[in-house]
Amino acid sequence: MASILAATALLARYALHRRSAPHYTIPLAHAFLKNDPCAEYSKQAAGALTALHKEPRTAKTEALQSVMRFAQCCRDSQEWPRLDALASSLWTAPRACQSDWLLGRVLELDEDYTSAQEALNRARFSCRNAPALLSNPELVDLYSDLGRLALDQGQYREAVDFFRKAIKIDPRAYFLYIQLAQACRMRGDYRCALKADARAKTINPKETDAYIQEGYAKFARGDVKGARKDFQQVASLNAPLGQHHIATLYAESGDLTQSIHYYEVALRRFINSQPSDFRTASDITHTFRNLADSYRKIGKKDLAEKAYRKALGTAPEGTVRLSAGPFTTEADVEAAVAAVARLAARTPSPD
Asked: What is the pLDDT of residues 171-218, one digit of tens each?
């Protein structure tokens, strides 16, 4: 009973003095209750939040990690009110590179993706000219996150800068070179892209994404043969994924008949592999979408509509976050279906 009264008193203190009391007292409340799986984490997080509110620019790596451990514990325990309270505390912290980024990560765990993107956008600007205190290997995710955000928003030069900063922290992280290669390719710097891909393959020769990025960089330079060789290497590591990209290569080259053939082969192999992970399910969605695009371009409207509906039916939750391409959300797929239906009926668009 005493522990419950202590928790209630702490919450009452916040309610009565919310204008002066620090927000970081809220997550502590459950620490007084018995069998609280996040009790120890909440104590550490409270101290870290105090430091972030006082001077976020000098917050130590351990402080940021303790907040993330507490946030992850709340997520795993489905303690959503405490996660909300933690996010509220970070919202009121002074703006700085670390606190803005940390807020974005917590909001992602809280499944508030719109607010998370807003917070990470804040971090993009506050971290751009941040001092070189972020040299700890545990913080490589910060620059990687910001680089991906800049890439998604078409800020390719900024993305390249963030990925290079991440690589300086951890030069053996192959996935950073793959991200850098994509940013360089989107910027049109194919030499940079191929160099980054080569480094990624040196570190991890079996990483399919390195060959995929290299293949598209070669294709953009006009080396179709070299691109096909890279995608065949992908197929040797992951057969359906390689077939998908070979199909895309044909589609981009204008050979829609071959693209349809390889997309169908990829789909059969994807489905026969009995996908259980998020990425494979997303790959299936994208393959159906691309197959539908190819059908649409050759005038096979019925097959296009069927494939678009398959894409809609296989789309895993959150697919939109994996791809900036079209037809990755329910609304996009339904719009595509409606467009095909209008073409089939030969009726004018309501627009």
From this structure: 999 999 999 999 999 999 999 999 999 999 999 999 999 999 999 999
Among 146, 163, 216, residue whose Cα is nearest residue 185: 216
**Per the structure block, which two tokens stand in for 227?**
């691109």
Rounded-to-integer distance, Cα 234 and Cα 240, Å: 9
Token digits for 264?
Answer: 């169908």
Q: Which two tokens stand for residue 263?
A: 């997309």
Per the CB < 8 A criterion, the answer to whether 344 and 302 are in contact is yes
Query: Of 224, 230, 256, 255, which Cα lies nearest the Cα of 242?
Result: 230
What whole-number distance in Å separates Cα of residue 83 and Cα of residue 73?
Answer: 9
Give the Cβ contact number of residue 229 at 10 Å. Answer: 14
Q: What pLDDT digit, counting tens, does each position of 66-121 carry?
A: 888 899 888 888 888 888 889 888 888 888 887 888 898 898 888 887 788 788 88
What tokens does 204 get?
Answer: 């991890």
Q: Which contacts qualify for 12-17: CB closer than 8 Å, 24 or more apart?
A: none
Gap between the Cα atoms of 154 and 73, Å rounded: 34
Asked if 279 and 316 count as a contact pair (C-beta separation under 8 A), the reply is: no
How far apart are alpha carbons 161 and 210 in whole angstroms? 19
Q: Cβ neighbours of residue 67 under 8 Å, at least 6 residues apart?
A: 45, 48, 49, 52, 86, 90, 102, 106
Our CA angle for 162, 167, 173, nearest 5°, is 125
Phi, psi (5° rounding) for residue 68? -65, -35
Give the tokens for residue 317: 């939750």
